[in-house]
Specification:
Elements: E1 5-6, E2 18-24, E3 27-33, E4 41-44, E5 57-66, H1 78-82, E6 87-90, E7 93-104, E8 107-117, H2 121-126, E9 133-136, E10 142-143, E11 156-161, E12 168-171, E13 185-191, E14 197-202, E15 226-231, E16 236-242, E17 246-249, H3 251-261, E18 264-270, E19 280-285
Antiparallel strand pairs: 1-10, 2-3, 2-11, 4-5, 4-9, 5-8, 6-7, 6-9, 7-8, 11-12, 13-14, 14-17, 15-16, 15-18, 18-19
């Protein structure tokens, strides 16, 4: 099911919450109140560089300006990270942080980062400019009814607090993210007799972030399927629809691709029930 939340906050602790509405044409559909607890949110005060998001980065930092000077963040340890503590959504990337140091005036330095959590490695690899939104994922978020807030890019939410003269509007960020398959990992190639090459990868599954007792994680999707393409992911020169995590190309097939279309990349996407994953590079032909 789509997972949609509202993060509502204010600059001071006197805030008593707001009424939330789904904007549907000229009408406002009631979504209920936010409650009095303020979400811990703000924006990046400085750009967050790209990251391969493979390992804990003890020296990496993110500088965040929170909406209120009295809102705080806390430290955790490795066990806390493993249990899911200190999760923050920055743009379309989910990070975790070990340490949070106040710098004054609502500015915080987050360090000891785990980047690209929850299958958001493509967003981590792109990095984020200053002023990118940052929201702590905790109990202060307000779950919204997906039947009233469609998981579409044009969905909008309105919030009206006590004494407000008008509504505060927000577009739905990261539409469809919770139902998009994470991109495959561990792309590798094996040379075979006669010049053939076997390209392989490892699938992942939405919501299955732990490898329990070395048992294969559930697929989650209706079927296992992949799209492999040669060329641009948006308009490939050639493509293959597969039901297993491998593709074999002979020497003649690779030579024909290069001769016909020129140098390009070979990539793979996982096909899910509701969407396709981001593409993952398998190799480049040149």
């Amino acid at each position: 099911a789509p997972l949609i939340f509202a993060a509502a906050s204010a600059e001071n602790s006197a805030w008593r919450g707001a009424a939330l509405f789904s904007v549907q044409g000229a009408a406002l559909v009631d979504l209920g109140p936010t409650g009095k607890r303020r979400a811990v949110m703000g924006t990046l005060a400085a750009p967050l560089p790209p990251s391969p998001s493979l390992l804990l980065e003890p020296r990496s930092q993110a500088i965040v300006d929170l909406v209120g000077n009295d809102i705080g963040l806390s430290d955790t340890d490795i066990a806390g990270l493993a249990a899911g503590a200190n999760r923050m959504l920055i743009g379309g990337e989910l990070i975790q942080f070990l340490h949070a140091q106040p710098l004054g005036a609502g500015r915080w330095q987050l360090s000891g980062l785990l980047r690209g959590r929850g299958g958001t490695e493509p967003a981590a690899l792109a990095g984020h400019p200053a002023l990118t939104s940052a929201v702590l994922l905790d109990e202060a978020l307000v779950p919204l009814d997906a039947l009233l807030v469609p998981p579409l890019a044009n969905a909008r939410i309105a919030a009206i607090g006590t004494g407000d003269t008008g509504a505060v509007l927000a577009d739905l960020a990261n539409p469809g993210l919770s139902r998009r398959p994470p991109c495959p990992v561990h792309a590798r190639a094996f040379s075979e007799a006669g010049g053939a090459v076997l390209y392989c990868w490892t699938r992942r599954a939405r919501g299955q972030w732990r490898w329990q007792d070395s048992v294969e994680v559930p697929l989650v999707e209706e079927r296992e399927a992949y799209l492999v393409g040669y060329g641009s992911p948006d308009a490939p020169f050639a493509s293959w629809l597969l039901n297993a995590a491998s593709l074999r190309l002979t020497l003649a097939e690779r030579t024909a691709l290069l001769a016909t279309h020129g140098p390009a990349t070979l990539w793979v996407r996982q096909i899910g029930t509701f969407d396709q994953s981001q593409p993952v590079l398998l190799t480049s032909f040149s």
